[in-house]
Amino acid sequence: MPWEENFTAALGSAADLAPEPDPTGLAAAAEHRGRRRRRRRAALTGAVAAVVAAAVTGAVLTGPGALLTDPADGPQSEISDTYMRDTLLSLLPTGQTSAAQGIGRSRGSTLRPSATVRFDTGHGAGQINLLTEHVAVPLTADTAGTQCADPFETPTESCARTVRTDGSVLVTNVLLPRAQGMPKELVVVDTRADGTQVRVEAYSPEGGTAVPLTVDQAVAVATSSAWAHLADGMRPTSVPATHAAVPAAADLRAEAVRLLPAGAAAESADAPQQPPGATHLKVTVGGASSWLTVRVSPKWSPEGGGDPRKSFESNARGTLSHTADGSSVVVRQTGRTKEATGAGSGATIQTAIEVLHPDGTLVWVSEQNGPNGYTFEPGTPALTVDQLTAVATASVWRRG
């Protein structure tokens, strides 16, 4: 099977092993983390398709050299497909490349420039994707892409997070395969003080632990000055920071424990680098144990703006209801596969309660069985749907 088909199949297999993320739920601690995960999956799949369709099919030898230049004469500058492709190639270490493709931006467009290439140093071919974004400033601890991956939810080998004196943030994640056939992946995200964000992903499309770039090489690509003008004229996808601070994981954990029903015992997940706005608890009631995840996002706003409540309710996937005090509540139970969920059959392996409180605070509480946040297994839940709903609708979460 060609590598493109291998990787596409692996993506599909992995997606069937876990519930599909809810459009608003994974936004709870930081709306952008969940949406970026879906954008990232789409980008990876799109990169595979782009490589298959690319016109540049011959092998090219790359190596360090002078950076290319491209006209950037002020706001809303044009960025050519060729610039994105050739600049990425010029920043790679010596090796063979094939199926390189770039996507630029025409004047006035909000399209996010990107590039992709198949890269071989002689020790096995790999895939390199470069994705760009423009996030709102000033940067905060909750800005999308500026945190280490939550190791409870994403198998992680290592992560380093560096905050520079100008407030910019560099994150390097080495992520382990989530399922058999998926690749180990190096992800470097450079978020600059002006909101320009460059993400470099390197992995082997065939799966396994081979990665085509070292951490230092990927950092050099992401931090290159060649990408400095990419955000010119690009509207930020995230909303500006508000005065409402995202709560620390320890504070969320303490509140969640106080809201558990009588007789429930709780222990924390042994997961360092737990991001702000989220916490994980193992809850045991009457011999049944489940993982409880709580995410809280104060002053939540939908991506792209608009009325938060209308957006929340129109995008809700599950049973929508309202409390007497004005909260919008969505209850969703998920089966083992998307197909089973859509048909309403299959054992429930995750229950999620989403609540948009009257003050605009978004709370997401989920319950699942399994050893961690990415392995879902059938089993007797520790808490009932009503008990989970009581936790999610509690007024203690309101921050506004």
Task: Based on the model shown, name its key terms.
globular, alpha+beta, single chain, eight-stranded antiparallel beta sheet, 16 strands, about 400 residues, about 20% helix
Care to describe what's here?
- The structure is a single chain.
- The chain has 400 residues and is an alpha+beta fold.
- It is 22% helix and 28% strand.
- It has eight helices and 16 strands.
- It has helices spanning 3-16, 31-53, 81-91, 215-222, 249-259, 308-314, 338-343, 385-393; strands at 60-62, 95-103, 114-120, 125-134, 156-163, 169-175, 185-191, 196-203, 265-268, 278-285, 288-297, 319-322, 328-334, 350-356, 362-372, 375-377.
- It has an eight-stranded antiparallel sheet with strand order 1-2-3-4-8-7-6-5, with helices on both faces. Strands 9, 10, 11, 12, 13, 14, 15 and 16 form an eight-stranded antiparallel sheet that branches.
- Helix 1 (3-16) packs antiparallel against helix 2 (31-53).
- The longest helix has 23 residues, at 31-53.
- The relative contact order is 0.14.
- Residues 1-75 and 337-344 have low confidence and may be disordered.
